[in-house]
Each structure stands twice: as C-alpha cells, then as structure tokens.
Specification:
Mean pLDDT: 94
Number of domains: 1
Number of strands: 6
CATH topology: Rossmann fold
Order of helices and strands: EHEHEHEHHEE
CATH class: Alpha Beta
Largest sheet: 6 strands, mixed
Number of helices: 5
Low-confidence stretches: none
C-alpha cells in the first residue's frame, strides 16, 4: 500500500508512514503546489497510491464521478500533526487494509472511523 500525502498535511507524515512500513510521498515532491484535487487524484490513481488528506473535496469528487478510486483516508480533527494522531492513522491503515486495497473512503476522527466502499452510490 502506497500513500500520497496531500499538501494540507505536514511532510513529516512521510516519516511516520515509512517507520510503520508504508511507502509514501508528499505531493510537494511529485506535483505542483497549485495542482487541483482532480490532478492529485489522477496522479494517485495512475501511480497506485491512496490519498491521505484533511480535505473533504476528494470525497466529493469521488461521489460526483462515482469512480472506484483512488482510496482516500481523510482525517477530521483540528490537530493534524503526526505526533497527535499518528497511531490512530496507522491503526486504521492496518484495520482497513482490505477495504483500502479494493477502493474505499476512510474518515477518521479521534473517536471513530467510518468506511464507505467505492464507488459511492446515491
């Protein structure tokens, strides 16, 4: 499983994922900082990455297009630093590995995780 860390999250996440055995890259190293969410999602899909973000727009795009990927992990908390929620995110990656590999949106907050299988149906 490979993770693309969105621009709205600190690059330190790459180190956290690497320490847990996951390949990852921060968008700032592979794309333009002004890239649209569509461009980021297209790159992730083409290169076999799931998107790790703090942005709800990725889920909205998947809902609008009914695409089957890429999988999205979105964190819904004020403190997005790896030191605060790193363990929560790593545990969710392990717990929902199968769903993420098949196509899913995982929404995490400090209290719960919600899983939606792709494509999203209205």
């Amino acid at each position: 499983m490979k993770l693309l860390v969105d621009m709205n999250l600190p690059p330190r996440w790459v180190t956290i994922f690497s320490s847990a055995g996951y390949e990852s890259v921060h968008w700032s190293l592979v794309g333009a900082p002004t890239a649209s969410d569509r461009e980021i999602m297209s790159w992730a899909r083409t290169n076999g990455y799931l998107v790790f973000t703090h942005d709800l727009d990725f889920s909205a795009l998947l809902a609008a297009t009914q695409e089957e990927g890429p999988s999205i992990i979105q964190v819904r908390t004020q403190n997005i630093l790896p030191e605060a929620i790193g363990n929560l995110v790593i545990e969710a990656l392990r717990q929902f590995r199968d769903e993420l590999e098949q196509g899913a949106i995982i929404t995490l907050d400090p209290v719960r995780a919600r899983v939606r299988i792709l494509p999203l149906k209205s």
